[in-house]
C-alpha cells in the first residue's frame, strides 16, 4: 500500500478531509481481482494510474517473481525420475510463491478497508472500524517482510540442487526477493513516523531493523557461497 500516516488521532480528526480524492476515484464497494489474475501490463497500468496497487503489493509480487526464478532453476534441473528431494523443494517453493502473491492482494484489501472506514467516518462504530483498519495496515507490511525471509533461506538450501548454468537465475531471484523485502519495509518506516506512542514506535522500529538485518545477512551469505 502507499505510505499512510498511522496516527489514530489524525485519522479521527481528518476522516473526511484526507485522501478524499482517492476515496472518490476508487471503487471501494467492488471486489478487487487478485493480482495473479492480471496481465503484467494491466498490473503496471494500475500501479501508475490508481491509488492501488501501491508499494506493498508491488514488493510482494517482486518477491514472488524472484522466487519464481529459483523455482525455474529447480524445475529445469529436476530429472525425469522425479527426485524426491527436488520434488519436495519445488512444492515448498510453489507454496511460498502463493503466499507472497496473497500478501499483494492483502495489501490492496487492507488499504481499501482503510479508505472505506474513512468514507463512513460519521457512522456510530467509526472509531472502532478506523482502529481496526489502521492496525491492519500497520501489520500487513511486517507480515509481508517476514514472509520474504523464507524464500531467502529456501534459496540457500536449494542452490546445491540447481544446475550450475541456472544458478545465476536463482541468485538474481534472491536479490529480487531481498529488494521486495526492503521495499515493503519503507511502508513500515512511514507507519513508525505516524505512531503517537513512543513505546509502539520503538517496538515497531526494532522489528523493522531486525527483519532488514536478517535479510541482509541471508543474502550476503548466499552470494558469498558462490566464491
From TrEMBL:
Gene3D superfamilies: Formiminotetrahydrofolate cyclodeaminase monomer, up-and-down helical bundle. One of its GO terms (molecular function) is formimidoyltetrahydrofolate cyclodeaminase activity. It comes from the Bacteria. SUPFAM superfamilies: Methenyltetrahydrofolate cyclohydrolase-like (SSF101262). Residues 41-207 form the Cyclodeaminase/cyclohydrolase domain. Its EC number is 4.3.1.4. Keywords: Lyase. InterPro entries: Cyclodeamin/CycHdrlase, Formintransfe-cycloase-like_sf. This is Formiminotetrahydrofolate cyclodeaminase protein. It comes from Salinisphaera shabanensis E1L3A.
